[in-house]
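Data availability (excerpt). The following record was deposited with the supplementary files.
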Amino acid sequence: MTPAVAETVGGVSATAAPVANSSGSVTNQAIQVLQGPYITNTYGGGVQCQGPTMNFTPYVTGAVAAQKPFEPSYLDPVYDVTDNFGAFDENGVPMGDGVLDNPGAILFRKDTRTGQKDNYNLGVGFSVTWSKPMDKNLQNLCKEAAAAQIELNQQIISSKRLEFELARLRNCGNLAKDGIQFHPRSPYYKICADVLINNPPGHTHPHTHAISSEPSAEPESHSPGRAENLGAPLQTQPLPFSRE
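Predicted structure:
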């Protein structure tokens, strides 16, 4: 008997041909912190001061990797690979001839896990940067200039307010002298409500009268009401007193 070399199984080549497949993905995530400019305060008159600045940047990152459709397991078929018949040995006992007795027959199916799973990634955090000018003297000078500019602005506002009140007083007084005013129910009546006129039209206050020091040319009146016309001084006598 010529020995058979197992090169084929049922006419199908049994040459080993291993195949290795690998796949993967890499996701790079980075947080970029942008350094902002200093906070600048402007006070007018060209005065600008920059102070220390703190930047607080929160961030949230996330990633989800999933496979669709999701199959946690599958039924893997187990085939019948028995080869007990097809030939006989030298004693006439049946033996395999290298050909499957039931090719393609499935004995049973076993539950096999796929290893498939979803991946979730969540990152939460924050970044903080602190920036401060190096020259403190310049900061102090700028603060002094800012304080002076604020006082100047307040003085200008006070002067403008005084000019406005004087103009309102003058205009309301002139209109009141002419007999012109807002109706008491008018919403603008209160504009001139606090303006008083001490000198009504045709009257000047305060005013004086001239008194002449020359004697009057009119004859004196001998009115009995004058002291010098009453005559000699009056004489009084006691009245008799009697006791009852």
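Summary of structural features: Residues 39-53+133-198 form one domain.
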